[in-house]
Structures are given as C-alpha cells and as structure tokens.
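Support request, please re-run this one:
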Amino acid sequence: MASTLNAVVSLTSSKSSSLPATSCAIAPERIRFGKGAFYYKGNNVVTSRRVVSVRAEVTTDTPPPVKKVEKESKKNEEGVITNKYRPKEPYTGKVLLNTKITADDAPGETWHMVFSHAGEIPYREGQSVGVIADGIDKNGKPNKVRLYSIASSALGDLGNSETVSLCVKRLVYTNDAGEVVKGVCSNFLCDLKPGSDVKLTGPVGKEMLMPKDPNATVIMLATGTGIAPFRSFLWKMFFEKHDDYKFNGLAWLFLGVPTTSSLLYTEEFDKMKAKAPENFRVDYAISREQANDKGEKMYIQTRMAQYAPELWELLKKDNTFVYMCGLKGMEKGIDDIMVSLAANDGIDWFDYKKQLKKAEQWNVEVY
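Re-run finished. Output below.
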C-alpha cells in the first residue's frame, strides 16, 4: 500500500517578509531538513534562519483488489453437486435389487444393491451417498447417517441416470465379552428386500472424482468393498459411450481380498479386459491363498511390489493418477515400497507424495 504526504509549506523569514505558499506531494521517508539547529513550535519548525509552517495530511492510495486466480482442477468436478439431500431431509428411494455377490464359503458376506432415485441424486463417479437405517439408536434417537462409496457410474446400472448402486459388506463380529455385534447400517442394507424404502443423503465428496484427461493412467488400489468407486470408473471407461469422453489411457486395478471366494465383480473385469486389453490391467492379491517368492502373504502392497519399477516410472508422469480406497493400513504398505524406489532417484518419497497430492494425482479414501 503506497502513501504520500500532501503538504502546504509556508516559509516566513526572520524579517517577516512573506513568500508565496508552495504546494507539493512528498513521500514521508524523503522529508529532509537542512543543516542548522531547529525545534518544533506548534505546527511550525523554527530554524536559525526562518520559520517553516507545515500543514500536512496523509492520503492512502488503495490498489485495486487482486483477483484470485482459480486453479483449474484436473478432475471431473465442473458442475459437481454435493449435499443436495441432508440427514434432516433425506431422499427416499426404492430398492430395485439386492443380491449377495460373494460365495457361501467366503469369510463374510458382500452385497450389491441398486436403489432408484428418479434422477434426484445427480452424482458423479467417485462420490458417496449417505444411508440412514430405519429405527433408533441406544439413546432413543434416529440412527445416524453412514456414508458409502457409490459403486455405479453416473448413468447407473440401468443406464438411465435414475439409479445408484452400493457394494456393502455385512459387519458381524464377536467383541471381547464374547457377544456377537452387528453393524447397524450394513445389516440394515444387506437385509433390504426389493420394493423397500431407503433414506438417502448426498451426494458428497470430491476427493475421488475421476481425472478429466481421457489419456491418463489411472492406478486404482482397493481392498474388499473399496472396489466400489473403481467399478464406477471402469463402467464409464469401458461399458459406456459418451459424446464428450472416450478413455484411451491405461486403467490398472489392484484388488486385495482374503480368499478367491471374496473376489468381487470378476466377470465384469474379465469382459473389460477382453474388450480393451491394451487399456485395462487387473491384478488380484489373495492374502490367504497366495504368497510371493519369499513366502510372504500376498497383500495388495506385496502384489504391487512385483511391479514396483514400472509403477515408479508411471508415478513420475504428470498424467498418472493414483486412487486408493479400502482399509486404512494399506497406505503404509504402499509407502514402504515407494520409499526405496524414490531414494534410488535421490527423491524423498514423502515429499514427492505431497507434491502428487497437491497436483490431485494421489487420492485416498480409507476407513
């Protein structure tokens, strides 16, 4: 902010002869007094030669406000809608389909469900919706909303933009007291019958939105039901036709599950691979059935380690996007792989990962 001192200076000689007043603009830091003794008296400066009257005011020139330059997102977020429906006023949809998609001998049940929303919940691939289970909690209040990643493309499984699909694992476990505990919302959802009402909120989230670039490399890392957002990506990429989008890049999926009977959507992925073998790769990590050369269980990071140099080269490109969804512990295992690879190039992995996040190329949604 610049400021100037506007002053009217009157010079009066010791003989009281008057001189014309002079008006000038002076920057405050440039005010100088000549040699000789001086002192202040009222608004005057008295020197050995004459009295100088200074009448001044400071005015401030305010520069015009600087317009903030909006950063253009690399993701498909233009026009994205969030929180159209909130917990106090949810949308009531109908259950169209609810089917178990894991084998009977799988450790736990996972269900695929389709709800109608009549076009009222205009979500994008990578967003989530909230579900409010019927009933009340232990405090006598309505059950709280629970968020679930959407497992269908924006067009939905029926292709009419009027449905939303979820992939939900039924939560049942035994606590330390030996009591069987059932997750309220997951069991509510898995038990729903076609024709039932379901209260929905959202859509929410921008973290997992797809990249706009149809030539991007998209690396998807999922454990269990963390596959949901990537099913939505892959349907758009390989099962649908869009006037403004045709995927020509590389989609590489890593899916980690405990057993073969826990694998999800494999028939769909097989069709995608047959349809676009140059554009789609899928690698499974089945921890209780597979091991690496060292005899270590095959977790998702173990499988990724087999492709570590190739993955690192891809991560150096500015059109590679990594998406991670699933169990929270998976990120540490992936960090462990990348630390040494980055170090070989003289790069600190954690600093580099921060740069990737800032560039929207490293996207995480874990629980």
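The two ends are 48 Å apart (CA to CA). Helices lie at 184-190, 228-239, 266-275, 300-305, 308-315, 330-344, 349-358.
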